[in-house]
Amino acid sequence: MQYLVTHFSDFQLACLGSFFLHESVFFLSGLPFIYLERAGWLSKYKIQPKNNTPAAQEKCITRLVLYHLCVNLPVMIFSYPVFRFMGMQSSLPLPSWKTVLTQIIFYFILEDFVFYWGHRVLHTKWLYKHVHSVHHEYATPFGLTSEYAHPAEILFLGFATILGPALTGPHLMTLWLWMVVRVLETVEAHCGYHFPWSFSNFLPIYGGADFHDYHHRLLYTKSGNYASTFVYMDWIFGTDKGYRKLKALKSGHMEDSGKEM
Ligand SMILES: [Zn+2]
Ligand SMILES: [Zn+2]
């Protein structure tokens, strides 16, 4: 941190630093799932039997690079004055881990709440047809499809991601940590695989890949599962009924086949 602070300006760190960090985390965590799908490795953990064609995967990557440069980077540059105004700093000392943890938990809860309602609005007829259908082009999602969306949606739902930090003016390190965990979380939700070590197995309140994959494979009016991180928003507002029914059916089948054996 000392090195970063003395060698780069605040603006360079907050805008370009954030951009490069985001690109690295996003592509490093998302690309392995492309190769996993192509090679057919760990296929017993794949949620859907269907695979994406290399052409579809490549289309996703080229669009992403374009959107990241033309949408994400300008957003980072233009939101910089807001973060500064709210008290964001990159100087030493670093904040205490308690402050960092409280802020990140608050960002997750706030993001999930705003995302849930924003996502439901995107599933209304007009907005779905003209905006959100782009994200749903991939009915069999893979890690990188997490950020594949119409530019208007990137702005609209990106607002949910930066709202928490914009309100609290955190230390730049906290902002970076939030960005890293949020990217890893959304890549995991779209990865298309449910592993025995998947986070949702240990934290039932967390949605994860199985939860969001269901949202992608069903018709846009029937899917439900609108929340980004947790499962309680859909549970409270009854938009997870189809998913719960399917899960109950599946576990019923498992019990039945267990008895036969
Ligand atoms: Zn959707
Ligand atoms: Zn999605």
Write up this protein.
It is a single chain. The chain is mostly helical and 261 residues long. 66% of the residues lie in helices and 0% in strands. The protein contains ten helices and no strands. It has helices spanning 2-7, 10-39, 54-85, 97-122, 125-130, 151-168, 172-190, 208-217, 232-236, 241-260. Helix 2 packs parallel to helix 7, helix 4 (97-122) packs antiparallel against helix 6 and helix 7 crosses helix 8. It is globular. It binds zinc ion (ZN) (2 copies). One zinc ion (ZN) binds next to helix 8.
The largest pleated sheet is described as:
none
Q: Label the overall shape.
A: globular
Query: Which percent range describes the beta-strand content?
Result: under 5%
Structural class: mainly alpha
* End-to-end Cα distance: 59 Å
Radius of gyration over alpha carbons? 19 Å
Mean of residue pLDDT values: 93
* Low-pLDDT runs: none
The helix/strand series, from N terminus to C terminus, equals HHHHHHHHHH
Bound molecules: zinc ion
Number of helices: 10
List the keywords:
mainly alpha; binds zinc ion; 0% strand; 261 residues
List the helices and strands and how they pair.
Layout (H helix, E strand, L loop, with lengths): L1 H6 L2 H30 L14 H32 L11 H26 L2 H6 L20 H18 L3 H19 L17 H10 L14 H5 L4 H20 L1
Helix pairs in contact: 2-3, 2-7, 3-6, 4-6, 4-7, 7-8
Bound molecules: zinc ion (2 copies).
